[in-house]
Amino acid sequence: MSSRSLAQKCAIRVCSAVRVALNTVGWYAACLGDHDTARPLQGRPRPVPAPPRLRRRGGALDGLGYIEHRTGHHRQAVRHHEQAVALCRALGNTTRAADALDQLGGPHSALGWPEQARAVWQEALELYRQQGSSADVERVQRRLDDLDAVVSRTAAPEPVTPRR
Length: 164
Prior knowledge:
The chain has 164 residues and is an all-alpha fold. It has helices spanning 3-31, 35-42, 51-70, 74-91, 94-110, 114-131, 134-155.
């Protein structure tokens, strides 16, 4: 192997590591509520054929969905999370797919789409059960219970008091 090709491979690995590091910093900024800092650090995922890069792309899409949801761009969040779910399923990564489905329920709920939220949360719940992830099962079950409570409150008619 020539020193030039070795240098090129090292440069590619360093660039990839920097992208992963920036994505991680962006994720933590988003978790801390600093969405303006987080959005450019998450970057725009690029279509690339290599499976490791595709896995990172799924994480980037999910991260962008998280940021869009937290900043009130719920339709964009739905689009990003749906792409992440599709990619994770295509790669057979059920752990990441469950996480993306779990995140997808939030924007659906915020948009006033309780049936869609329920469907993705139930699917995430089933995947978490299959994975034996009890903490995730409990969290998603609470979300479903909260959703049912909200839907039943809004669906219940107000009692009518007769006028005299």
